[in-house]
Specification:
single chain; 104 residues; mainly alpha; 6 helices
C-alpha cells in the first residue's frame, strides 16, 4: 500500500525565481497602498498585518527590505495610523529587523 501523502514539490531555480518575483510585486503593492487614503492605511496597520510584515522583513533580501521599510515610513506620516503603530511597538520591531540584517 502506498502513502497517502503527496510528493514534495521540486523547488528548483525556476520556482525560486517565481517566488522572488512575487515577493517583489508584493513589496511594490505595499508601497502603493502605503500612499493610499486613511482607510487603506488603517487596514495596513492592523496588528496581524504588521506582525506578518515584520516576520517577512527578517527573511527578505535587502532590496525588498528597503521597500517594506519605505512603506512603513509612509504609514507613519498619517497621524491616524500612529496609535496602531505605537501599540505594535513599530520602532522596536524595526530596530530588531535592522539588527538581524546587520544594518543597525
Amino acid at each position: 500500500m502506498g502513502s497517502s501523502r503527496p510528493a514534495s514539490p521540486d523547488w528548483g531555480p525556476q520556482a525560486l525565481d517565481v517566488v522572488s518575483g512575487l515577493l517583489q510585486k508584493m513589496g511594490n503593492l505595499l508601497l502603493v497602498l502605503s500612499h493610499a487614503d486613511t482607510a487603506v492605511k488603517g487596514h495596513l496597520c492592523r496588528q496581524d498585518n504588521l506582525l506578518c510584515q515584520f516576520e517577512l522583513m527578517q527573511a527578505v533580501e535587502p532590496g525588498l527590505l528597503l521597500k517594506l521599510l519605505k512603506s512603513l515610513k509612509h504609514l507613519t506620516l498619517d497621524p491616524s495610523t500612529l496609535p496602531a503603530l505605537q501599540v505594535i511597538t513599530l520602532l522596536k520591531h524595526t530596530c530588531s529587523c535592522l539588527e538581524h540584517h546587520g544594518t543597525a
